[in-house]
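User: Here's a protein and a ligand (coenzyme a persulfide). What would the complex look like?
Assistant: Let me lay out the input and then the predicted complex.
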Amino acid sequence: MDFTFTPEHQMLREMVKKFTEKEVRPLSQKIDQEAKVPMELWKKAAELGLLGIAFPEKYGGAGAGEMGYCIMLEELAQGDASFTVMLGAHISIGAMSIYLDGTEEQKQKYLTKMCSGEYISAFALTEVNAGSDAANIETTAALKGSDYVLNGTKFYITNGGIANVVIVFAVTDKSLGAHGGVTAFIVESKTPGFKVGRELDKMGIRGSNTVELIFENVRVPKENVLGKIGEGFKTAMKALDRGRLSLSAGCLGGSKRALELSLNHAKQRVQFGKPIAEQQAIQWMIADMAAEIFAMESMVYRSAWAHDQGMRITREAAIVKMYCSEALDRIVDRGVQIHGGMGFIRECDIERAYRDARINRIFEGTNEIQRLVIARDVLTKGAY
Ligand code: COS
């Protein structure tokens, strides 16, 4: 087995690292305080070609696959979690849904603009009564003439208030539910009846836009049905497999940054006449952080490699998401502990990292759902 990154992957990592250090990290505190990612940053990422990293060149992408995409998110997450989530939702589940199941015309019309950054995308599956139980959605789509008419409300939608295009999952046959009764639609936010509801004030990733979306008789032309009628639940699950893996790459980056901040602090903070890094109590925390980061890195890139070989990664993505989001929480918690009182103060980067980390155990499927997906797969297919 070859565990080295290709020269292209290394170049990509260097490029994103420089961008992160120069453009992203300096804005992180402001993004948190103002609860907004400046659009200038999005434009700069677009100019660098970051929004199309995962997609083929014929759609304006860089063709770097899931490996390249995970490298990019890992680096960006060392700059700012909100910005990483904004890009992650756009690429992993918004644009990815079109890439996976869209027609060639839909890819040319929408995916190309998503790769260039002209369009921001969102993925609208969740509703107030359909979170973990995603098959329980109530938003409806009824065929009237040559259009589907959408009615309903979506909740917790990342990028929903700033998106030009939203992938909306709606019920086309209530009697069938997830098994043939849910359809995906490509909805342009300028369509009459598309309304942005309240914006949610969050504990962490405060700069990421999270809203309620309301659909009141939104007419979507038949050609904007994404995939086959009734196959929308599968589109959502396939996109979420990718989303769960790339989210984990973000957890890996966030963990590396938390370790770096903790090391810097431990080396310069003197107590009992020497830097606290020389105290075994601190060294054990550092060792645990490093070991977990090694495990995260190994599983993220092994799974990204498997994905790029064309393998189905449903079980892997669930395992990696569950492990990495929980490891990140343990790592930022130790990071705050190493920082002591300073780690509890708003101006301290580790305090923000602690708040930003928590959502990862919840979104893109709670870790309870990841355990359900893993257990079902192991029980039906065997352990290995
Ligand atoms: N890839 C491809 N197809 C998949 C799939 C995947 N990863 N997961 C499920 N499917 C298919 C199944 O094969 C099944 O197809 P058939 O109708 O042909 O048999 C169909 O989708 C329904 O799947 P299933 O029976 O497993 O549906 P459940 O209602 O039991 O739901 C869970 C499964 C709980 C796993 C799903 O609802 C889930 O992931 N919930 C969490 C939602 C989530 O992550 N939300 C995050 C917010 S969106 S950012």
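Summary: The pocket of coenzyme a persulfide is lined by residues 93, 123, 125-126, 132, 134-135, 178-179, 233-234, 237-238, 240-241, 314, 363-365, 369, 372-373 (CB under 6 Å).
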